[in-house]
Amino acid sequence: MTDVPEAPHTGDAQRAHAPHRMDPSGAGQHAVNERLRARGPAVPVTLPGEVEAYAVTGHAELREFLTDPRVAKHARHFTALQEGRVPEGWPLAVFATVEGMTTADGADHRRLRGLVSKAFTVRRVESLRPRVAELAASLLDALPRAADADATVDLREHFAYPLPMGVISELLGVEPALRDRLHHLSGVLVSTSSEPAEVIAANREIVQVLAQVVAARRAAPGDDLTSALVAARETDGDRLSETELVGTLLLMIVAGHETTLNLITNAVRALCAHPAQLALVRGGSASWDDVVEETLRYDSPVSYFPFRYPTADLAVGGTVIPAGTPVLAGYSSAGRDPRTYGEDAAVFDVTRADKRHLSLGHGPHFCLGAPLARMEAAIALEALFARHPDLGLAVPEGELTPLPSFVGNSTRTLPVRLGG
């Protein structure tokens, strides 16, 4: 990647192709990815609200882009936002405007990440393993009671969602009574199909709910991350503002369960659609960890993640992205890039030797919760198929409705038959 202040031939080539209009419905994401990769590893796109942006779709180019020091995360670099050209109630606003470590740069990012990282050390995550297994077993005990007469149940709602939501809530000290509401509100905020009024109302309410969590932990501290963050703020107020505290909780609630929810859903869907791959795992030719990594590559739980902003005109794969333009990180596209994975890039193969991927990020903003997400998914999948070895999709895979978003990548529901 190089600075290219003047590139007339590149500009002419870009103008010859109209920007791709991102579909808020999230329909056919992998087919869209193929079309975008055919146009190049970085392509102009139009976001909801007629906001101009770019998407980086190639694996090698995205990997380099994510570590380029001329690429920022803070919205002060988002030209259209700073100039007032982004509409009120914009469905992607939360990814740009919330104050927290995922929207911070430099020293601010290191400060905020350092405060949170203590909750995600290898030792702390490993200590959660028995509790994750206990929660998974409890949910599986209840699963048959949620099924209808022919043993069909929405696995997303009754297993893939409550497991990671329960884990992150316990880690943060969120009361059980607030969890479903937080899940609903985070769903509105990450959906690219939400109406402006919905976004404004959801953003206002989720901040209020999280302020309740902070107040509860301030009044009665516990062995949880929120209590630790409150203590850090009150011990050294310069280290963490109240806005950053609530923003950090918001980001952790969303990222801490939505990603793992989609990962578990996508893995079960892939295994049910590819029974020979499931047989390889049961036969010992691959592990549940292999399933998790291949799912992350093959069907990333996050498709196009907002936002990064070049601080100077930047050439990515021969395309110049102007300074201040919001850029989507195309994780699901990069995961099936044939230039990296070969002709079988679109094949689900748990024995694949090269399972490297970017689905949990790369560089300074690599997902802090990655070890926890991986552990949760592996435990969930092993426990699920041990309890229900004949589990299968209750409808053809092609009839599953996608999430209404090009940010999240999964399905609204996952109806399965539990079998014997």
TrEMBL record:
Residues 12-23 have a biased composition (Basic and acidic residues). InterPro entries: Cyt_P450 (IPR001128), Cyt_P450_B (IPR002397), Cyt_P450_sf (IPR036396). It comes from the Bacteria. Keywords: Heme, Iron, Metal-binding, Monooxygenase, Oxidoreductase. Residues 1-29 are annotated as: Disordered. The keyword Oxidoreductase applies. GO terms for molecular function: heme binding; iron ion binding; monooxygenase activity; oxidoreductase activity, acting on paired donors, with incorporation or reduction of molecular oxygen. The keyword Iron applies. Pfam families: p450. Belongs to the cytochrome P450 family. This is Cytochrome.
